[in-house]
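Protocol check, entry for the methods section draft. Step 1: assemble the input record (protein sequence plus ligand SMILES). Step 2: submit for complex structure prediction. Step 3: store the C-alpha cells unaltered in the notebook. Ligand used here: zinc ion. Step 1 record:
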Amino acid sequence: MPLIVNLRHLEEDELTLHGELPAADLDLDTHDEMIRLIQPLRHELKVQLLEDSLLVRGWLRLTLDCQCVRCLQPFQHELVLDPWACHLPLEGEECVSIVNDCADLTPYLREDMLLEFPRHPLCRPDCRGMEKKTAGKAKKAGGKEEPTPSVWAKLDKLKL
Ligand SMILES: [Zn+2]
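Step 3, stored output:
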C-alpha cells in the first residue's frame, strides 16, 4: 500500500496507514555503496485532517543491509523512527502537493529517513577492522599485495 492519503476520506475521520512499502518505491538514494536497501519500509501512521494542514503521526522502521567500513563484514542496521510525526500545510509556499484529492507522504518520510542513515556504517562501535596479523601472513605466503580497497582510502582520510 503506497503512502498516499485521499483527503476526502479524511474529512470524516482520521486514517490509519499500516503496512509495508517496497524499498524501491521509497526512491532513497543513499550515495553510499556500503548501504543497500533490500527490505521494505514498515510503517504505521495515523493521518488527521486539521483546519489547513495534515498531521501525520506514527512510526517507521527500515532494515538496512550494510557493510562495515572497517572490517567489511555485512551486517544489518535497524533504522527506527518512533515516534515520527510530520505536519504538512495544505496552503502556502511549503504546502503539500495534492493531485486528485490525494497527498503523497513519501517525500516527507524519505527526507527524515535519510537523515538517520549511518554515515560510516560499523558492525559495532569498537570494530577494529581486519586483523593486521592476517594481512602480514598473507603477504609472506603469497607474495602478492592486494590493492588497497577504496574504503580504506576513505577511512584513512577520516583518521586525519
Ligand atoms: Zn566491522
